[in-house]
Design goal:
The chain is α/β, with parallel strands linked by helices. It has helices at residues 2-5, 11-39, 65-101, 103-118, 121-132, 136-163, 166-173, 178-214, 226-234, 242-269, 347-354, 382-391, 409-420, 425-438, 444-447, 457-468, 487-504, 515-521, 542-545, 549-556, 597-601; strands at 303-314, 321-332, 336-340, 363-365, 368-371, 374-375, 392-395, 475-479, 507-512, 524-529, 532-538, 607-608, 614-615. It has three domains: 6-40 and 60-269, MetI-like (MetI-like fold), CATH 1.10.3720; 303-402 and 454-529, P-loop containing nucleotide triphosphate hydrolases (Rossmann fold), CATH 3.40.50.300; 540-644, no CATH class. The longest helix has 37 residues, at 65-101.
């Protein structure tokens, strides 16, 4: 409300508000006060010019044009608002259809919307007016349906932006249906720009309706609106110009009031308006669906997650971009698995694929993708949603975007319990408060009624973990859970994850850039580069037992207490590989000091080394050359080179 009140603090906003309120007030009181004077016929004073008795003159029956203009305000505004409501409702249905229907049907809706938006609005209104027939009802339907494509296009854009946020992904992980996500999480976050554009749309509808009535397609006698009065007055414009000027001025003032009010609110709230919307990007071509390789079900009761030959691809300008290429790993009950690598190595995409959060046009294929023995590759079912909602907890990277900013924290945590566990509102809220207490949030009863912005970063991250604990998770996937948190809070979050893991024998997949954190928290580490696992080793061997040059370079790039402060920090030369342009052979070869022609032509397989570890390198374990490394206490460090 504070932001809306700030509209009145600007000259344009104050003027527009006064005009809009004045028009609406006139629509209410004018028919009550002046209908009799507006309908009074005086055959002795036909087509009279402006005078003290008749400020705008009279029409061909001697009726006062000024009072008729005032009385016509109600019908003009009512019809414009009715058309706006139709445009908004139809636009919402069009705009939310791609989110609800999925990619294939959604693309057809988007294509149809784009075609409709390409036609001028007035042309569409005239077309629909002919279809629905002459009269006020037909004109309302015509203008409403003509405005629906533009409003639907705006809704599609806004919904697509919110649908990619983390709190929507969290709701999907919890198994919440698309309709509930739309109503509870998406629409509340796009309501302000939609309201602003609906206000502007009312002004446009007012002008369009006056235009149809002026053309004889709108309001018919004996009823009258401003457009009808303008049509009647234009016939006597040479005798009495005020007969056309009065309704024309009313249309101008009212339309200007609605438009200026909407524009003023838009500037204060910082939202965009319908006018001048850029064209939506063309949908990329879909990838060929990959048939999953059939595998036998794993019968081990201690195995929580079993992934075999995971592939994730997205459309690109030059063909599919393979973000994850043949990743295989398992996670046992109570085990902590770390995944490290530079940005773009495929860590987060792997986690999203495991959590069933990769949406079209992305394609996921795997020989096996089992959670607690359930195949996640099959089509989405109620049982699968329940499994993901209760047995898998996802902790996203940015705690600020992990929650819906328009809903209270307790309600967001309780939603999954109500949806999957059948708890009523009171029991679900009690469970939410208990879980907030379990993740060490002080005063959980009070905090449950606060909004996300009232929580600190560390509290939001703990609340995100608490959301995952609303069920009985067997696996927690934490994607950079300590990003943007200070060191003290980072340690608190990591300690919390460790205590949850120890208390309930929960498996943990921790994704991080920080190899030191992973080495301290995890039992085993997967090192990813260019969408593939290049090394799988125990966390205790990271510092001194890594065999792949890339793993050793990652460790060397992290300073420790023994790092010489007088020497430049170690860096990995070159740039990470572009997933859309992976070179032949070993992807790390252009940056590797051990690379040979064999490395550049043939990709090394990820094979066990006989000690329970896996490594993909033709020169695994070979010492780095003296020109490229400074070996301090057995830790290989690449010498500093300039990154080009």
């Amino acid at each position: 409300m504070r932001r809306w009140r700030s509209v009145l603090r600007t000259p344009v906003g104050l003027t527009a508000t006064v005009l809009t309120v004045g028009v609406l007030a006139l629509a209410v009181v004018a028919p009550i006060l002046w209908t009799d004077r507006a309908d009074a016929i005086d055959t002795d004073d036909i087509l009279a010019g402006p005078s003290l008795q008749h400020w705008a003159g009279t029409d061909n029956l001697g009726r006062d044009i000024f009072f008729r203009t005032l009385v016509a305000t109600r019908l003009s505004v009512e019809l414009a608002l009715a058309a706006t409501i139709i445009a908004v409702v139809a636009g919402l249905l069009i705009g939310t259809a791609p989110f609800l229907l999925g990619r294939r049907s959604g693309r057809a809706v988007v294509a149809g919307t784009n075609i409709a938006v390409a036609f001028p609005g007035l042309l569409l209104a005239l077309f629909f007016a002919v279809v629905f027939g002459v009269g006020a009802t037909g004109a309302v339907l015509a203008i409403g349906l003509a405005g629906a494509p533009t409003f639907g296009r705006l809704t599609q854009t806004l919904v697509a932006g919110i649908a990619s946020r983390d709190f929507v992904a969290a709701a999907r992980v919890a198994g919440v249906g698309r309709t509930r996500i739309l109503l509870r999480h998406v629409l509340p976050n796009v309501s302000e720009p939609l309201v602003v554009n609906a206000t502007i749309g009312a002004g446009a509808a007012l002008l369009a309706f006056a235009g149809l009535s002026f053309l004889g397609l709108g309001v018919q006698q004996p009823a009258y609106d401003w457009g009808r009065l303008l049509f009647d007055g234009i016939g006597s414009i040479y005798v009495n110009p005020a007969a056309a000027l009065a309704p024309g001025l009313a249309v101008l003032v009212a339309g200007l009031a609605f438009n200026l009010f909407g524009e003023s609110v838009a500037k204060v709230l910082g939202v965009g308006v319908v006018g001048g919307l850029p064209a939506l990007p063309a949908d990329p071509p879909p990838l060929e669906a990959e048939a999953p390789v059939q595998g036998t079900a794993h019968g081990g009761t201690d195995l929580v997650l079993d992934v075999r030959d995971l592939e994730v691809a997205f459309p690109g300008p030059r063909g599919p971009v393979h973000a994850v290429r043949g990743v295989s790993f398992t996670v046992g009950r109570g085990e902590a698995l770390g995944i490290v690598g530079e940005s773009g190595s495929g860590k987060s995409v792997t986690a999203l694929a495991v959590s069933r959060l990769v949406e079209p046009p992305g394609r996921v294929g795997a020989a096996r993708l089992d959670l607690l023995g359930t195949d996640l590759r099959v089509g989405e079912t109620r049982a699968q949603r329940r499994l993901l909602g209760t047995s898998l907890a996802m902790v996203f990277q940015d705690p600020m975007t992990s929650f819906n900013p328009t809903r209270r924290m307790g309600g967001q945590l309780a939603e999954g319990a109500r949806h999957h566990q059948g708890l009523d509102r009171r029991a679900a809220m009690a469970r939410a408060v208990d879980r907030m207490r379990a993740v060490r949030i002080s005063e959980p009863e009070r905090r449950a009624h606060q909004y996300p912005h009232e929580f600190s970063g560390g509290m939001r991250q703990r609340a995100m973990i608490g959301m995952g604990l609303m069920g009985t998770p067997a696996l927690i996937v934490a994607d950079e859970p300590t990003t943007a948190l200070d060191v003290t809070v980072q340690q608190q979050v990591l300690d919390l994850l460790a205590s949850i893991r120890a208390a309930d024998d929960v498996a943990l997949v921790l994704i991080s850039h920080d190899v030191t954190v992973v080495g301290e928290v995890c039992d085993r580490v997967l090192v990813m580069y260019a969408g593939k696992i290049v090394e799988d080793l125990p966390a205790g061997d990271l510092a001194g037992g890594a065999r792949h040059p890339y793993t050793r370079a990652l460790v060397a790039a992290v300073p420790d207490m023994e790092t010489d402060r007088d020497e430049p920090l170690a860096v990995i030369p070159g740039r990470p590989v572009d997933p859309a342009d992976v070179p032949p052979g070993c992807a790390f070869a252009p940056r590797c000091p051990l690379a040979t022609d064999h490395c550049r032509t043939e990709e090394p397989p990820l094979v066990p080394d006989g000690t329970g570890r896996r490594v993909a390198c033709w020169h695994a374990g070979e010492p780095l050359g003296t020109d490229d490394v400074d070996d301090v206490d057995g830790t290989a460090r690449l010498e500093e080179v300039e990154v080009s």
